[in-house]
């Protein structure tokens, strides 16, 4: 049976991997395992050992603690799946919202000068609302 913390850590691995534009194969190659094992970690089917999580955090350029951020309150989202996005936003875990994740990824793919202008536009529009 999956433990909710293992599922949470797996989701955080998947989200970070996706944010940096890395495939499961690429992550597996970096840490010396097959992509199928990455799949099992990301779904929570297999528990990630401490040393493996250390390797993954290095490959994804985040501290190990990143994978545990937002673990409190996870049970709320499990029991009320229709409120996952609201719970994620309320606890500051925007990476749990697929639309927000896609927006951030797209934002950082824009050249820096244009990105600054877009940021200023978003700030003006949010103040107007």
TrEMBL record:
Query: Record's CDD domains?
Result: HTH_XRE
Give TM regions. none
Which residues belong to any copy of the HTH cro/C1-type domain?
13-67
What the entry lists under InterPro entries is as follows:
Cro/C1-type_HTH (IPR001387), Lambda_DNA-bd_dom_sf (IPR010982)
Record GO terms (molecular function): DNA binding
Q: Name one Pfam family in it.
A: HTH_3
Q: Please give the superkingdom of this protein's source.
A: Bacteria
- The protein's name in its UniProt record: Helix-turn-helix transcriptional regulator
């Amino acid at each position: 049976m999956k433990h909710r913390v293992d599922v949470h850590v797996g989701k955080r691995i998947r989200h970070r991997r996706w944010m940096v534009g890395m495939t499961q194969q690429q992550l597996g190659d970096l840490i010396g395992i097959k992509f199928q094992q990455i799949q099992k970690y990301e779904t929570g089917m297999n528990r990630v050992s401490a040393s493996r999580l250390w390797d993954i955090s290095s490959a994804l350029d985040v501290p190990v603690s990143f994978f545990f951020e937002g673990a409190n309150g996870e049970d709320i989202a499990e029991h009320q799946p229709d409120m996952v996005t609201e719970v994620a936003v309320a606890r500051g875990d925007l990476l749990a919202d697929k639309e927000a994740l896609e927006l951030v990824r797209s934002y950082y793919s824009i050249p820096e000068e244009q990105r600054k202008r877009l940021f200023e536009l978003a700030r003006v529009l949010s103040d107007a609302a």
